[in-house]
Amino acid sequence: MENPTITAAEIARLAGVGRAAVSNWRKRHPDFPAPVGGTTASPEFDLIQVEQWLRTQGKLPELATADRLWRHLAAASDSPAAGLAAVGALLLARQRGSRSASIDAQLTPLLPDVDALADELGPQGAFDELWQRFSAPGPGRPFATPDDLADLMIGLANVGGGSVLDPAAGSGAILRAAVRAGSTSMYGQELDDELARLAGLWLALHDVPGEVSGGDSLRADAFAGRAVDAVVCHPPFGATNWGDEELGHDPRWIVGTTPRTEPELAWVQHALAHVRVGGHAVLLMPPTVASRRAGKRIRGELLRRGHLRAVIALPPGVAAPHGVPLHLWVLRRAATDAPPPARALLIDAAGGDLADTAPRVLATWREFVAAPDGDVEEAGFARAVPVIELLDEEVDLTPARRQPAVVGEASGEHLVRTRERLAAIVGELPALLPQVTATPTEAPASGTLTVAELARTGALQVIGPIRSTPSRAEGGSVAHGQGPLVLTGRDVVAGVDASGHDDGTLLERVPLMAGDVVVPVAARQLISRVITSDGVLLGAHLYLLRPNPAALDPWFMAGQLRNSANDKQTTSLSGSRVDVRRAQIRRLPLDEQRAHGEAFQRLIAFESAVAEVGSLSAELVRLTADGLAAGALHPAGGAK
Predict the structure, then answer these.
(1) Which helix (H) or strand (E) holds 463?
(2) 33 or 572: which carries more pLDDT confidence?
(3) SS3 121
């Protein structure tokens, strides 16, 4: 068995020194490990020997177990994905209390660190820590769909507690976003077998029902005949050998045979073929698909039959390839006998930042869904375009070419209203910010208790996370999108009102009460929200913390949960599950809690106002620039 090797440059990074220092060590220390491979110009050294030498010399910084294990894992494996998958299989076997299959001999020296990390964090937490390092950009690591984009795509699909398929799953970024949003059944297929195995291990270690298969989704569909509530996908772009010849008359081509030069439209039809009637498909697409001549017939049929509901232009750089301003296509599987909608929504969000525009995109989409034949129109941003207008000679669906111009008196009035609203909110900011002072250094430090300890003392009740079953098939007793209102994980993260509905899939109905605090199980950071009114149900994959009002103030507890220390204590950047029971809460008298809670409540209002200032500022800049460029506005005091 050969130990992993390391280059001189990697030794320098390992020890936190420059390359020259490593060169000096080799010359001045006869016991420095000799090269075991590489070339004279770029030698390679035995990693274990180098670490031992550095440790003996006092030149090796102390590393956390996860960092040390990942460094060895990446060096010992043929690929980071294969190494992480091998360790993931060991951790899954440990979680299930069974003996694991044989492990690659190169990974055998890493078993003590694997066991130590699992003892410290549990198998799931250990895998998440390693996943976090695998997901960081680096050589040999695939471009994953960023979390903020994946969350937007899942939000547009509006799956709630339903089933999701990603036929180009990669390492599972979109499936993880679906888990964060409360979906209960995950299915995926990925051409790269190692990435497929990784995505499947993540689901298994997080107890999420589902399956991720390897293979080519277009040529060898692993889920043929299966219909899900939503298909969400970031397919490969520009494939020249995607199987058009052998798939010429495939039954998935529900709106016609896909042209050879339109592989992305093949993925669109593949997605539609797997969505139940009434379900949504959301795909990330290159912008040229909206206007290429070869795809005109397919685009026209998608519109005529009522499947294509929206095209959304995104800001540049949101995902690979980062130099291309990508589009999102939102489709809804239409019943064959239903009259097609009269309008399709086109949104041009290419001019902003995704973090700022995503909530606006979601709000506009939901407005359109609520009244699909309504006249949604936001100058320069969104327009519900009559389908008959889109079915012209080109069937060009590029959002920017269909937006109403910002001209005339209306644009001037809009600019004045926006400026006045911005000035009013900016004027309110100083009053919203809570007044705080530094705690005297001589004041005694207050102790802390974990949420689990508080629950044991009766200070609060921890409920959930509630689980749900896969969505019912078509024809179930409750129609999709109806039933009692449910607060979902996506609602909590976005800070919006409850948008889900109980369609019979919740395994337990828990009504929320004013004063409850909810925390999503899966999020990129610990997020807490205080419930201010009764009447909605607790959604799937949410913790409910119900404080005893004689012992805990809910706003104080929510503020304590939402701090950087608890982020590190309970979550990882990979979007893994939050263990809220480990969060620390300070021990304070109830009157002091209420004072802290009031300050935190004001801080939340301040944060919301600042976010609105950012949104209004961007809108004001856009309105002014568009008006000046179009001649609808002119500088005050200047020539008209």
Answers:
(1) strand 460-463
(2) 33
(3) helix
Cα–Cα distance, 318 to 155 (Å, whole number): 16
Beta partners for residue 311, in sequence order:
329, 346
Cβ atoms of 578 and 500 closer than 8 Å:
no
418-437, pLDDT tens digit by residue? 787 788 778 777 877 778 78
471 and 505 in contact (C-beta within 8 Å)? yes
Residue that the structure tokens 């130099």 belong to: 323
Rounded Cα gap, residues 208 and 190, in angstroms: 18
Looking up tokens 């629950």, which residue turns up? 455
Residue 417 to residues 51, 408, 413, 421, 422, Cα–Cα distance (Å): 65, 15, 6, 6, 9
| Nearest-10 crossing angle of helices 173-180, 193-205 | 20
The DSSP element (H or E) to which 542 belongs, if any, is: strand 542-547
CA distance 178 to 150: 8
Gyration radius of the chain's alpha carbons: 28
* Token code pair at residue 615: 């949104």
For the stretch 482-533, pLDDT in tens is 567 888 887 787 777 777 777 677 778 888 888 899 988 876 678 888 888 7
pLDDT confidence of 637, banded at 50, 70, 90? low
pLDDT digits (tens, 9 = 90+) for 550-572: 888 999 999 888 887 777 767 65
Q: What kind and span of H or E run contains 554?
A: helix 554-561
Maximum distance among all Cα pairs of the chain, rounded to whole angstroms: 83
State how far the Cα of 238 lies from the Cα of 266, in Å rounded to an integer.
11
**Encoding tokens for residue 571?**
């979550």
